[in-house]
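ok trying again, last paste got cut off:
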Amino acid sequence: AYTSAAQTTDPSLRVLDAAVSKLALGEDVAPSDAVGSATTPAGTAEDAAAAPRGILPDEVSERGAALIRSCAEPLYYGDYLELDKILSAQHPVSDSVGDAQHDEMLFITIHQTYELWFKQILFELDSIRAIFSELTIGAQKISSALHRLLRVHEVFKILVDQVRVLETMTSQEFLNFRDYLFPASGFQSFQFRLIEIKFGVQRPAEHTARFMAALKPEHRVAVQAALDEPSLFDYVERWLRNMPFREFRGYSFQDSYRKATDRAIALDRAVIEAQIHGDELLKSEAELRKTQYMYSSVFKREVHDELRTNGARRLGFRATSSALFIALYEHEPMLHLPARLLRALVDIDDVINQWRYRHTQMVHKMIGVKLGTGGSLGFAYLRSTVDSLKVFFDLSNMSTLLLPKRLLPELPPMVRDQLKYFHSVEPYDRTLFELGSGGDSIVDWSFC
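nice, full thing came through this time. structure:
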């Protein structure tokens, strides 16, 4: 039923055929016979040198796959998950000093579970960053990135809920073994810090230096490597900055938006002046001027730069304009996925902030305002991180810049046609979209 080894030209397949022949004769076959060994059972010395050792051909036939399955040792559930290592990794310190505290096992298990989920989040973040590191990002890659971002969001929701399990331990039960933990601290979780860095969290230099000093050398190397690489924020900012259609064949989104916001402000002012009087009118007019100022940041670079200087904005001028374009016209077919991706980034930002808040409240219940075991300010330090470490706050604040549909300028037909999935365009235009362009003569792939 099989082609003989002598008739097979591929050296790797000759190895497989020889092993099949052994099976047919009732002889034992070692796993090495199936994947290539130092001595091949058929073929010349040249064939043996050319055959990959320990590597199967790119295309393995069905008979080869069946042979591999027949040769391999049966895979056992516990061995596959290496449960012996995982289940033997809980060593309560209180046990080792002869003062066994029942709840320390829960404390260890919860934090080990956190770290395993952190590892999964890092795995997903690295893959998403790899997608955005490419210069050509089509719909399929955006779809993959979105799928993995949604997974990260779901994992963080689990981490938030997991705090409830830890809260089944009372403050007194925790204090019974807390002293044994010094100077270890969650502050030393290098994986969580890697998540922050790779997502795009920016911390003061003095904080980073203090954190690095608390790490083991090998963890310090990993964190420094992450600091030296572009974060997901950097990649997304670059992707937005080079998005086409904001400036396209005479169409200018920023000019169109300026005219629309002028009309929106005029309508709001008319309503205010007709319905509000006295001091309330003055307050309403002041708020309207603030809104107008925020609108102008989309088409006046100096206003945008002032907001960045004050820390009210982080995205670049062109990236902000692109994000707003996507948000306003997300109903256009080609903008569905980008709009969902931007919302997913905001959702992750929010759920991380929820986790910080729940963690902060839990710590306050457990130790009050005592110092952390690692020497940090404990509750005071954690409370300072809530709301202050969001990465994509520009996207969260985008609602300030949105307009109701009745005031939204219609896209010119030539732009709207480009945003359809099925359309005919000139080769240059398709290349423009695939590579991404900010409407400039030169595509800018640098990081701001």
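cool. Confidence is low (pLDDT under 50) at residues 1-8, 34-55, 423-428, 434-442. The radius of gyration is 30 Å.
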